[in-house]
Write a structure and sequence with these properties.
Helix content is 71%, strand content 2%. The chain is mainly alpha-helical. It starts with 16 loop residues before the first strand and ends with a helix.
């Protein structure tokens, strides 16, 4: 329709409060509320605090602290009293619904769903025997009236928003359904007797609305047929809408002028639509007009619902002013709930630990470390420990030369010492040989007293120096071998970095090998992701359980409802449990994929392990060469110091050896001369001139003559 006419709505009177032995100021502010949404808020807060109070203090029917509560019944105007705090709650709840109905009937057309929610909660959670206006029949009537009017508000908005014709028709049909339910309640004799005079007024208005909104539904079904170019159906729908509107007009007698104006406006729209459609079909389209009962009925679309009421919602009730009053039963119930939480955690942790144990054993057997399975990047760089050594040698460019020079000096001193000791040894050996010859010449004659004692001392010292030299010679040889071993590495470390990098082994992988490696890394990352997610979910669950305190709810819950409350509260963990179950279930597939990937990785792993071993060995060797440098220099210096000292001693000993050998030679000459003097003079032979005759043993051809000649 071009515009949306409005029908009046039914609203309910508020109950009047009487006696209730509660704080007068609180009572007054709670029952004498302004007729606006602030009043609704006040009623909700009061309702919540009453709920908190009755959960701590026995103020219910027949309980020790029960006091009289009086309210006026709407239809009869009589005061009704019950010694039950729940009666106070029920009456406040009724007024909450009535106030929402009043606000919903105003121009803004809101709050009907809230009214239906209040009456629904009142019907489902409180006794129906408190008063006539809160009986099951009356409350059901109120609920259907409020839902119908809420759907009516939605219909108005849908038409203003130009929603699709079929949707508008379904929304309107649902308005009819709600009002039919309300009308059946109004026609009930028991309900009619409870309502009194107001029953007729409500019934007449509701019946009129049933026909009116049925007409609106068929009007929009006709518009849909028009959009679909089903011109025969269009005619019958518009005709039906016109018939139903005429029935509504008949039932509208005595209704306010606003209702009459709405009906006239709607008649203009539907009448115009029907006349135009019939004329077009008669003269242009000539489609058969089907019977209405052959067409599919319009099913209502319930797009409104009674908004739930939660008396303990802190966002509505505000702080619990009785929070410090916690009954022992609530503490006991809290302990029971804590055990339920602990049981839940134990069950979940048992599953997690079982899966973690399998995962740990599997990963241990694989011996796959995600941090080192792909170490290709390390081959692109010189390791820091090696860079440190290269940097140290770069500021000491003479390292190798100094080491070589030091070893050369050591070799020179070593050679000098060795030559000196050799000369001493040769002198001693020569002296010993001469001494031996003399002894052989003289036969059994012992050496004469007074022979020089220096040779024995020289020989003793020489033996000591030779022993030291022999030991040092081995050390010197080892030092030279070590120098030759490290010298090349030191030259490499002191050279360009490119040469150092080139000296380090690197792996050579094919494209297939690289693909195998990447696939393994991807699956290992999945394993780690699975672990991390599992730990995170476990932590969330623990924190959630730790913070889960429902003591306030337990205080306001009947003992008979505790089990149900536990079940509802534990549902908050369902989503986390689902995530954990999915995580645990995924492990089998992940490990299967890892097993397959590891089989393909075996050959690559072996090759990489060999290269890594060579690489580490090379790095360690180069580092060892650098660290050996200082030791080599130190030992070289110690060797030089040792041989320099030994060289001095050997030189002195050589001088002494020479002197001792000379003295020994002189002594032997003296002995020989004395022996010659002891021999008799030679006998003369004629006719030759007299000559000194040699001793017989010195006769030509005798061996003694030959020995002496040699001396």
């Amino acid at each position: 329709m071009e515009a949306v006419p409005r029908m009046p709505m039914i609203w309910l009177d508020l109950k009047e409060a009487g006696e209730f032995a509660f704080n007068a100021a609180v009572k007054k502010s709670a029952v004498s509320v302004p007729r606006d949404f602030e009043g609704c808020s006040t009623l909700r807060k009061y309702l919540g605090q009453l709920h908190f109070l009755q959960s701590r203090i026995p103020m219910g029917n027949g309980q020790d602290a029960a006091v009289p509560v009086t309210w006026t019944e709407i239809f009869s105007g009589k005061a009704v009293t019950h010694e039950d705090i729940k009666y106070e709650q029920a009456c406040v709840l009724y007024n909450l619904g009535a106030l929402h109905s009043m606000l919903g009937a105003m121009d803004k057309r809101v709050s009907e769903e809230c009214a239906a929610g209040a009456f629904t909660y009142l019907r489902d959670h409180f006794p129906h025997s408190y008063s006539v206006d809160m009986s099951h029949q009356i409350l059901s009537l109120n609920i259907n009236l409020m839902l119908g009017q809420a759907q009516e508000c939605l219909l108005e908005k849908s038409m203003l928003d130009n929603r699709k014709s079929f949707l508008v028709a379904r929304i309107s049909a649902q308005v009819v359904d709600y009002y039919k339910e309300a009308c059946r309640a109004l026609e009930n004799s028991e309900t009619a007797s409870l309502l009194g005079k107001i029953q007729k007024d409500w019934k007449k208005l509701v019946q009129m609305k049933i026909y009116y909104f049925a007409a609106v539904a068929h009007l929009h079904m006709g518009k849909q047929a028009e959009e679909q170019q089903k011109f025969g159906e269009r005619v019958i729908y518009f005709q039906s809408a016109l018939d139903k509107l005429n029935e509504a007009i008949k039932l509208a007698k005595g209704q306010p002028e606003t209702v009459q104006e709405a009906l006239r406006f709607t008649m203009d729209v539907i009448g115009g639509k029907y006349n135009s459609a019939k004329k077009d079909n008669d003269f242009i389209y000539h489609e058969a007009v089907p019977a209405l009962d052959t067409l599919q009925s319009v099913k209502g679309a319930p797009l409104v619902k009674a908004l739930p009421v939660n008396p303990t919602d802190p966002a509505v009730t505000g702080p619990d002013i009785f929070a410090k009053l916690v009954p022992m039963a609530a503490h006991e119930a809290s302990s029971l709930y804590s055990e339920e939480k602990a049981k839940l955690l134990r069950d979940v942790m048992a599953k997690i630990e079982a899966k973690n144990e399998v995962l740990d054993q599997f990963m241990d057997s694989m011996q796959l470390d995600p941090e080192t399975v792909d170490n290709l990047d390390m081959y692109n760089h010189i390791p820091p420990v090696l860079m440190e050594k290269c940097a140290a040698l770069s500021v000491r460019p003479d390292t190798v030369r100094n080491l070589v020079q030091s070893m050369q000096v050591l070799s020179g001193v070593f050679t000098d010492v060795e030559a000196s000791l050799k000369e001493i040894r040769d002198l001693l050996e020569e002296d010993e040989a001469q001494e031996q010859k003399l002894q052989e010449l003289l036969g059994r004659v012992p050496p004469a007293p007074g022979s020089p004692p220096g040779l024995a001392e020289v020989s003793k010292e020489c033996s000591k120096y030779l022993e030291l030299h022999e030991k040092a010679s081995f050390t010197n040889t080892e030092l030279h071998r070590a120098m030759n071993l490290h010298l090349g590495n030191l030259r490499l470390l002191g050279g360009p970095l490119e040469q150092v990098r080139a000296a380090l082994p690197t792996p050579s992988l094919s494209e297939d090998d690289k693909q195998v490696l990447q696939n393994l890394k991807r699956i290992l990352a999945k394993v780690q992701e699975m672990r991390d997610q599992r730990m995170s979910l476990e932590q969330q669950l623990r924190e959630m359980i730790q913070k889960d305190d429902i003591t306030t709810s337990l205080v306001t819950t009947d003992r008979s409802e505790m089990k149900k409350l536990f079940e509802e509260q534990l549902k908050k963990y369902d989503q986390l449990k689902v995530y954990l179950e999915q995580n645990l279930a995924a492990q089998e597939n992940v490990l299967k994929a890892l097993t397959d990937a590891n089989v393909k990785y075996a050959a690559v792993r072996k090759a990489l392990a060999e290269v890594e071993h060579k690489w580490n060995t090379t790095v360690q060797t180069l580092v060892a060469s650098y660290e050996a440098y200082e030791d080599l220099m130190k030992k070289s210096q110690e060797g030089k110091d040792f041989y320099t000292d030994l060289e001095g001693k050997a030189a002195k000993l050589l001088e002494r050896a020479r002197a001792a050998c000379q003295a020994s030679e002189a002594h032997r000459q003296q002995l020989l001369e004395r022996e010659l003097k002891k021999q008799p003079p030679p006998r003369p032979t004629a006719p030759k001139p007299p000559l000194q005759k040699k001793p017989p043993e010195l006769e030509a051809g005798g061996p003694e003559a030959a020995e002496l000649g040699s001396l």
